[in-house]
Amino acid sequence: MEQTLGKILIIDDNEDILFSAKMLLKKYAQQVIIEKDPRKIPFLLNQDTYDLILLDMNFMEDTTSGNEGFYWLKEILARDPAAVVIMITAFGDVEMAVRALKEGATDFVLKPWQNEKLIATLSAASKLKTSYKEISTLKKANSALASQLSQGVNLVTGNSPAMQQLLHLMNRVAKTDADVLLLGENGTGKEVIARTLHQQSARADKVFISVDMGSLTETLFESELFGHKKGAFTDAKEDRIGRFEMANGGTLFLDEIGNLSLAMQAKLLTVLQRREVIRVGTGQPIPINVRLICATNMPLQQMVQQGRFRQDLLYRINTIELHLPPLRERLEDLPLLVDYFLKRYAQKYKQPAKTVSAAALERLRRYDWPGNIRELEHVLERASIISENQVLQPQDFFFLQTQQNTLAEPQSQTHNLDEVERATVVKAMGKHDGNISKAAKELGLSRASLYRRLEKYGL
């Protein structure tokens, strides 16, 4: 391990401890700063930031109570709530060290320490600091996204009766902390709705974490959602926090929740009931405070009757149930959506915004939109790139369903490998109504591989 611990600050009034710690850690750290006088802590924190801080429990003025250590721990955390502080304590002060953990310290080391154990403790704490930074980055990204979505046309809008009803319910639900279940076909914008609910909630300044449950295997499920301890299983090379911990204080969005096996449903239910997670490889429960938003295109009530989905889990996740209308039931919103997407693609590709003719808009209205808004996005993006017309005409639009019907005709058969592969992908997507997970499974591909083929063939 070479220079992986970042910048370390050590505060201890024992010069021998300071010297030995610096000599040990300097080859693992970017920089090691040592200080004998704890009264200089405010100055040091004002001058620089530190990845790890080692703080003695007792100093010369008070050699036994640990009160000085608690005082300076509080001062450090007041200036930097994300600071990772490891307390240095004598063996007899373990009880005080445990109290320090409750008051915000990350860990503690006993002196005299074992070198390997000290380095392992600091390494684990360093990984935690990295996780804090990732969460901070996510918060900033969420804030930027919220600001961006608040400008111009909001995609979650519409004049159709179906959308007006949805918007009315969203306005009532958003500011509460109720868990929400989003039901709707593929491509209806469930993640967009989830993000909008988060942005309009009291948790808007916290993180929004999205998890594609359809892509989680049985072996990865617990590690991904609940985290794991280094060495908990073969590939666990470092400590890792799970998505529940990452979303703590914010919103956790579980997409495609209907794809979970009964075993995974049971584990998720336990966490939701107890409101705490246990990382794989540990026995320590960690309290979690998240707003849960789940989504699926599957008929959960029917699955409950068939014994494929737990009724008690369904009760947990659908305090409020929102049904997203398919695009064919909100065709009144087409002009607004078309205008929004064409302006977005004009900005993306740095070209003048295109418009659609009355005939082209009528053709869009007559189409059934099996892929919903996601398909509309694709159709408009393709047309805005390929067409040389500033005003798009009916012939500028390519529809997946039309191509599907053509491929079904005998005369469309070919021995060209690319065309055969393209036809097979189109048929699989049509058979499963655009469900990526199901189509990929039938084709024997991973979701990522299927996405690459969809991109390759412009589907």
From TrEMBL:
GO terms for biological process: phosphorelay signal transduction system; regulation of DNA-templated transcription. InterPro entries: AAA+_ATPase, AAA_lid_NorR, CheY-like_superfamily, Homeodomain-like_sf, HTH_Fis, P-loop_NTPase, Sig_transdc_resp-reg_receiver, Sigma_54_int. SMART domains: AAA (SM00382), REC (SM00448). Keywords: ATP-binding, DNA-binding, Nucleotide-binding, Phosphoprotein, Transcription, Transcription regulation. One of its GO terms (molecular function) is ATP binding. Residues 7-126 form the Response regulatory domain. The modification 4-aspartylphosphate is found at residue 56. Pfam families: AAA_lid_14 (PF25601), HTH_8 (PF02954), Response_reg (PF00072), Sigma54_activat (PF00158). Residues 156-385 form the Sigma-54 factor interaction domain. This is ATPase AAA. It comes from Rufibacter radiotolerans.
